[in-house]
UniProtKB/TrEMBL annotation:
The keyword DNA repair does not apply. It comes from the Bacteria. This is Nal1 N-terminal domain-containing protein. It comes from Salipaludibacillus keqinensis. One of its GO terms (molecular function) is serine-type peptidase activity. Gene3D superfamilies: Trypsin-like serine proteases. Residues 24-77 form the Nal1 N-terminal domain. SUPFAM superfamilies: Trypsin-like serine proteases.
Amino acid sequence: MPHLSKQEIEMVRKVKSKQNEAEIMEKENVVGLGIGLKIKDGKLTDRPALVTYVTRKKSVDVLAGKDVIPETVDGVETDVIEISMPTVQKSIQNSELLRTLPSNELSSRMRPVKGGWSVGHPDITAGTAGAVVFRKDEENIAHYYILSNNHVLANSNDATIGDPILQPGSVDGGSAPDDQVATLSKFIPIDLTPDKREEDHDNLVDAAIAEGSLQELDREVYWSGYVKGWLKKEDVEVGMLIKKTGRTTGYTTAEILSVDATIDVNFGNNRVARFRDQILATSFSQGGDSGSLVTDLDNRAVGLLFAGSPEVTILNQIEHVRTLLDIEFL
């Protein structure tokens, strides 16, 4: 299976400098730029590429000269992939695009809560409980948390620490106080300010945790098993096979397309946030799968699913999630 070596990734990363990235991200329809492999005839080749992601692929003949992606940048091949506009993947009530599982599956009430099941802040529809994680306090006492996205547990920055977290999410019938399973403990704020050109306005994660009692939380991820550690970002490879269990699409697998990706994501209400150092994979999620923990086939955590389009799924690097939330899986 084609993959990029660490040396090849570093070579492309140097080309994906701030100057080159800024210039490409300003071009028409461009929403992302990542490090990947050239795709030919729908299949990954073994050639490193600077991959540009666009909402709509247009012929060179109809683009202004300034908006054309060159065939190479500083000696590295480029590729242009159409992915529509990525959006966060909480469930959309009454949407024809939302596939709801039977009521006795991942959208139903589950105690103890496992990774993969419907969860959410009362003011959102529903997302996915990624996994149960823990951290120790100053007295070395372990506290246990549901890991998911900010936009699932903290309503895209609009929640308050201590707010109830429901399982299942409200669109699946959950309501307080009967279905409260945890309380919001920490979230990493998402910068939704309009000036996306400045690095200070970029985001690394869409992540949050909610504390619950050990009796109501289970460290197992449904259909996948127990998490067995995590991968540093330099060990996440293009071409790697990954898997997840999510509220809407259940257990699915995918292949990593790009790493070190800068990508714009629509949070609704004309709010677009820019994320950097992201993982892009082939599409294996839909609305309601936000918050799913993504692992490799050996159950090592790779990323936290938060957004996507019909063509791709977008993940936060798990190393950033772990560091910023100060959590552990084992």
